C-alpha cells in the first residue's frame, strides 16, 4: 500500500459530538490549528486592500448570508472608498480566497455571476442529495428509492427536496446550485432522454448491483481497459467517467425489467442497432466492452476506434483535472493511466499493453496461452503506413469520410511538398472560383520566396477563401489535371518511424536546452516544419514577417511556439522531422534526464481562431448564417463545458472576440472541426438554450442517413484529442 501523506491519524481523538463540553473538543481544535499553521500558504503576505472586503464578507456570513451575486459583491466593495479593489484586484481576491477555502468561486460562464461566501453551505447542498436514508423525510422516500435503484432525479423532485425548511437557502438560488452540481459532476444529464434537460442522474447514489446472470458474451465482444497507475482512484473520477459515458451514448433499457441499465459500478449503452457498449469498474481498472449482436468479427472497426478515441479524450481530461490538484501524485507528468487490450483467456479476461496489439500474437504470461491480436487491434483502426508509402492496387483514393473533411493546414503543407510549382498552379486554377489567374499572379508577386512558400500560400489562399473547402475538391482538381490522386492518400497516413529512444522518454515535452541546436540545421524547411508541428499557416506567415532576414530566428520561434502546444513531445518532433526527410538532425536533440522542462499550457494561453474558417463548413449557408447571427452562446458554452467537449482554454479563445457574431463563428468552427461528440452536444445545447428550431434542423440533417452511419471516424489517429465523427454530417448538411 502506497503511503498517503495527506492522511493524519496521530493522535487519535474520540469526540462525543452530542456533548458540547467534551474535553476532546479542545484537543481537536488544537490539532486543527497545528494543521492550519503547516499549510504551505499559511504566513504568506496578503495585500492589505483585501482586508476590508474580507471583514465585510465575514460579517455577512455571521448574519447567515450564504451567496452573493457579483453585483452585490461589487456594491459592497465600492463602500470601501480608497480601499476598494479594482476589477482586476477583485478577480485576484476571489481566486486567492477560493484557493484558501474561504469562499467558493468558479470563473466559468454559468457560475461566475455568483460567489458562495460560506463554504459550509456547499456541504448542505451535497447533503440535500447525497445523504443516509434516515435523514430523508417520509414524503420524499419515493425520490430516494428512485435514486438508489436507477440514479434518476427529476429537476422538479430536486426542487421539492429543497423546499424543506433546512434547505430554504438553497431554494432561493436553485438554478445556480443546479449548475454548480453539474459542474462538480454530482449530477449529470443522460444522453437523449425523453425527459430532456429536466432529468438528471446521480451516479454516486446508485446502490443497485448488476445481476451475476448478466455476463458478457465473450464470443461477441472485444475489450479494452484504462488501468490507473494510482492504487486508489478517487471516487470523483469514477463517477465522472460514468457521467461522461452516459452523456455521450444512450443508456440501454433492460428487456427483462424495463429499467435503465446503470448500476453502482457498471452501465450499458446502445451505439446502434447492431452494437452495444458496456463499462465495468474493477478496482483501479475501467473496462470497456463493445459487443456485436452476432459475432465480434462483425464489429465495425470505425465504431470501436471512434469509441476508444472519444473515451480516451474524455478520460484524459477528467484525469488531468483531478490528478493535477495533487502535487504528491506521481502522475502529474504523464497520463495517470495505461491503455490495455483485453483478451478472453479461458474463462478469464487478461490484459496487455495496447502497444503490443500491433503484433500478430500475444502470449499470456499467467496462463502461457498464445492469442491472436487481430480482433482487439480494431480499437485503433486508422490509415496505417503502407510499404513504400504506396496504395494497394484496389485503392480508389480517399474514402467518403475523408473526402468530406476540410484539410488541415498540415495536410496542405504535406500536399504542397508533393506537388511541383506547375501542378500547384493547375489545381489552383481549378479550385479558385474568383479570378484565379489574377490571384495566382498576386500570390507569386507577394511571396517573399519561391518553391514551397508559393505552393503553400496558394493552397491556403484557396482554403481561406472557400466556405466549403474539402478533400473532395482537391481530389477532383487532381483528377481534372491528370495528377495522381493517391497523393492525398499519402498525406492522410501516419508516418512510419522506428525510434531509438524509450517510449516513456518520447512522451516527454522537450525543453529549450534539449533542442537548442536544431535551428542551425533545419535550413529553408522552417515554414514546412512549423505547419507539420501544428502551427497554422497564419502563424507561420507572421513568424516569417517578424524575422524576414533571419532564418535561424524563425526556426527558434517556431520551436518555442510549438513547445507550448498541449501535444508537444519528442515523438511528435521526431515524426515531423522524419516526414520532412530531416532525420539527420535527430542527432542534435538531447534527452538527458532532468532537462525535460514540462511546459504546461497556461490557462491564459489562447488558441488562435481563424474566423474565416468558422462560416459553417458542412452546413447550408442559410443555416450557418442563422446560427452566427441569432444565438447567444453563454449558456451553450456552459453546457458544452459540463459535457467535456470544450475546455476553459477553448472558451477563452472563443470569448476573446468582442462581437457576438465573431464569437459564434469561432464556436461553430470548433464544432465543425472536432465532429462528434462535440456536434451532438452542440445540438443538445441549442435545444436547452431555447433554440429548438435550429437544434431540430441540425438533428434532422445528422439523422438523414440512419443509425448505421452514426459513428464514422474522420480524423487521422495523430490528431489525438479530437474525436472525428463529423464526416457524415458534413456531406449530408
Automatic annotation (TrEMBL):
Alphabetic keyword roster: Repeat
Domain named CARD: residues: 604-687
InterPro entries: CARD (IPR001315), COR-A (IPR032171), DEATH-like_dom_sf (IPR011029), Death_dom (IPR000488), WH-like_DNA-bd_sf (IPR036388)
Top-level taxonomic group: Eukaryota
Death domain mapped to chain residues: 511-593
GO biological process: regulation of apoptotic process; signal transduction
Record's signal peptide: none
Record's protein name: Death domain-containing protein
